[in-house]
Design a protein that fits this description.
alpha+beta, 5-stranded antiparallel β-sheet, 15 helices, binds iron/sulfur cluster
Length: 464
């Protein structure tokens, strides 16, 4: 441990910023950040919000580009429809995403939380901005809090509740649009509440959940609920890049006027603490509560400009970067994750490329033995279940591959686009061909004259 770190008071570990001494919730009222990074994050979040609100309207061949219909087990990613039959691809896709997240976190810490997490974007860039607009900055909010319920307080608080609820309702609608599709949502809206009471109830529940989260629960989502936040302890190491305080340069801290020997650059102004949405002091080191929102970087840079010191006392840096002035390195841990990630990406790409347009399952009809037919023939009845994963109509044919015989379809295999289909068919063989009780038959599945799959089934004959 570096000597400089010994200056740090460890008493912060005895308490949680969002819990008071009495065990009650400490409601954090951060000051509005101002600075280059806050502006950049604002622009980034506007882009993110535009994409979020536009995506449900974008379609490919009449289908949304993204859909997460858990109820009907239908998922669309970048216009490609996935079915429950593609579960394996899903599982590998999820695993790939997980390894990507791990690698990204090992290298860049919680960069995602600060810049791209929907919770941070909606909280800090939408609801918090509404709050600053309606109630003013932190000190004005605290003043309003302390006021008795006079006209000003009722007006401001009432308006805030109305704006928060309306926006929560809007997000809930979009949330639903990502599940059922925008077209379906518009149909539900047009047909009215009474015809779709279940869906409307879900919409209201979503609305109240968002309202509760953004009005009251806020940073607790990141601190208590988010599993990603809790994983940081095992994922981060001394080479991970985080929002960090340069204690080598900053300590020993003290006011400009303080007569401290070898005084560091931190003037102990607490500007970095005042802007923190999770209420922590970054000078205490990396903490679970830090969502890497960069507000403290901006706050400290402004102070440094003011006192004529170089910016970057709080900056994106790794522990080794600060303590030993080491450059950021591509560690062997990162290399190992990269190898795993590329192997998974290759496997996933192979699965996606070789993914069938149609999934076919053939089973002998349960409870049926064999049927004797005219002209010394025997038949077996089979069920065929199909899923057309494409946006086009598909016609299939079956052919016997390894034995002479006939296939008599109950219905032709015409599968409408994006649909499940099932029918039955008979396989008819001559009795002389049957040498044992179970004969293996290969059924070729043909689409437009081209074989797409061979399925093996058993043909039951008389007991010989
Ligand atoms: S410590 Fe800094 S980066 Fe971390 S949450 Fe607080 S303000 Fe954001
Ligand atoms: S804003 Fe900078 S100077 Fe002020 S207390 Fe924080 S680290 Fe120290």
């Amino acid at each position: 441990m570096d000597n400089k770190k010994d200056f740090l008071d460890q008493s912060f570990r005895d308490s949680v910023a969002t819990i008071s001494k009495e065990g009650k919730r400490n409601y954090i009222t951060p000051q509005q950040p101002k600075g280059k990074l806050y502006d950049l994050r604002s622009y980034f979040s506007y882009l993110y919000l535009i994409i979020f609100f536009i995506l449900p309207f974008i379609k490919i061949e009449g289908e949304p580009i993204f859909l997460f219909n858990i109820l009907e087990r239908k998922f669309i990613f970048f216009g490609v429809i996935f079915w429950p039959q593609d579960f394996f691809i899903f599982a590998i896709g999820f695993l790939t995403f997980l390894v990507f997240v791990i690698l990204f976190t090992v290298a860049f810490g919680r960069l995602f939380c600060g810049w791209a997490c929907p919770q941070t974007i909606f909280m800090e860039m939408v609801f918090r901005k509404f709050e600053y607009w309606i109630e003013g900055d932190a000190h004005q909010q605290r003043r309003l809090d302390a006021m008795s319920w006079n006209g000003e307080k009722i007006r401001k608080r009432g308006f805030k509740l109305l704006v928060f609820f309306s926006f929560s309702f809007l997000i809930a609608n979009y949330f639903l649009a990502y599940i059922v599709g925008m077209d379906e949502l518009l149909v539900l809206i047009n047909e009215g509440v009474f015809l779709h009471f279940g869906t409307f109830s879900s919409l209201i529940i979503f609305t109240f959940v968002f309202f509760f989260v953004y009005l009251w629960f806020r940073e607790q989502v990141c601190i208590i609920v988010c599993p990603y936040g809790r994983l940081q302890g095992v994922l981060l190491d001394k080479n991970s890049i985080l929002v960090a305080y340069d204690y080598i340069r900053g300590e020993p801290r003290g006011k400009l006027s303080d007569k401290v020997e070898d005084k560091g650059d931190c003037v102990n102004c607490a500007a970095c603490v005042r802007v923190c949405p999770t209420g922590i002091d970054i000078r205490n080191g990396t903490q679970l509560e830090c969502v890497n929102c960069t507000a403290c970087i901006d706050a400290c840079d402004n102070i440094m400009d003011h006192i004529g010191k170089p910016r970057g006392l709080i900056r994106y840096a790794s522990e080794n970067n600060i303590a030993h002035k080491e450059k950021t390195t591509y560690t062997s841990r990162m290399k190992m994750y990269t190898v795993v990630l590329f192997s998974l990406i290759t496997f996933l790409a192979t699965l996606l490329i070789s993914r069938d347009d149609v999934s076919v399952r053939i089973m002998r009809t349960a409870g049926q033995m064999y049927q004797r037919q005219e002209a010394q023939k025997i038949s077996n009845l089979y069920n065929i279940k199909l899923a057309n994963k494409t946006r086009k109509f598909i016609h299939l044919e079956l052919k016997l591959e390894n034995i002479e015989g006939e296939i008599k379809m109950v219905n032709a295999i015409n599968i409408p686009k994006k649909s499940y289909y099932q029918t039955s068919f008979f396989v008819v063989l001559k009795t002389v061909q049957i040498k044992k009780r179970k004969t293996k038959i290969n059924l070729g599945v043909y689409q437009d004259g081209k074989k797409i799959e061979t399925i093996t089934a058993s043909f039951i004959g008389p007991f010989i």
